[in-house]
Amino acid sequence: MHLTNRVALRNQLFYATLKRVCVFLLICLPFKGFSQSWQAGGFLGISNYSGDLVQQRVDLKYTRYSIGAFVKRDINRYLTLRAGLTYGRIAGADSTNRDTLLLARNLSFRSPVFEAQLAAEINFLDLDVKHFTPYVFGGVALFSFYPTTKDARGNTVNLRPLSTEGQGMAEYPTRKQYNLRQFSIPFGAGIKILITDNWIAGFEIGLRKTFTDYLDDVSLTYVDQATLLRSKGPTAVEVAYRGDEVNPAHAVPGTYPADGTIRGSAKYKDWYAFTGFTLSYRFGGGGRNVWGRQKASSCPRF
């Protein structure tokens, strides 16, 4: 009988403890989820390009503007997920290079870039405690581009339809037409500063690794002039080779390169970058109420 009472008492204690744990989870888990916060904000900065038409890694002479918007979800103090849309412009030209061969090639381009991005940020510090934190980020993006150039008369010419390197032409079956929508891998680093409980400012440098070499419409070799003329017309020939537009010291007028002459380099893919300032508003959590005061925990004590 004594043993039976001990077993019954042990069972009672077990079920009482289990009940308390369940109550604790039911009460505290919603508060844990509520401590996560959302952010909505904007980005304003510059865009740059790296590819066949710049001699150095990045030519700051062709820096253009970029602008964007984003939403973020703070999973915890060290992990933030984000989604964003960014618009920028990129450009490059041989005319500002120092290499004689590049000057003689005399190609140029400009293109809009529209990007949709999903990424994760790793914060090194607790922003609410330190009021600032460095961070790194990485993710995946879908972007679109559309390279154009100015002809000798100053008219804007869309490059892709002209197949300047034989893309999509029957005479060059291995050269497929490049897609104007591509995936890229965005990554970089930045710093966030907590201005108030709800406003967060930041600065970010973000690189984009692409899987195309045609942001600038330059990658491989020249194609046969007569074939290009027959298939795409005189404008295609005019913008495919522009050495006859430069100073005769750098090129001999009218000497269109032979089929197979190097025009670009496919060894490295093109890159683009967005660098700038961010400003976001935090709401719906972060351990604070809508007036910015710290929320009190309602978790029971045992």
Radius of gyration: 29 Å
Q: Encode the helix/strand succession as letters.
A: HEEEHEHEEEEEHHE
CATH fold assignment of the largest domain: Porin
The CATH architecture of the largest domain is Beta Barrel
Q: Given the C-alpha coordinates, what overall shape results?
A: elongated
Strand order of the largest sheet: 1-2-3-4-5-8-9-10
Helix content: 10-25%
Give the oligomeric state of the chains in this entry, treating copies of one chain as homo and distinct chains as hetero.
single chain
Q: Quick one: biggest sheet?
A: 8 strands, antiparallel, barrel
Low confidence ranges: 21-34, 286-302
Number of helical stretches of at least 4 residues: 5
Strand content: 35-45%
Structural class: alpha+beta
CATH class placement of the largest domain: Mainly Beta
Distance between the termini: 31 Å
The overall number of domains is 2
Number of strands: 10
What is the average of the pLDDT values? 85
Give a quick summary of the entry.
By secondary structure, the protein is an alpha+beta fold. The protein has five helices and ten strands.
Can you offer a commentary on this structure?
- An 8-stranded antiparallel beta barrel has the order 1-2-3-4-5-8-9-10.
- The C terminus is likely disordered.
- The chain is built from 5 helices and 10 strands; from the N terminus they run αβββαβαβββββααβ.
- The protein folds into 2 domains: 34 residues; 247 residues, Porin.
- β6 and β7 form a beta hairpin.
- By secondary structure, the chain is of the alpha+beta class.
- α4 crosses α5.
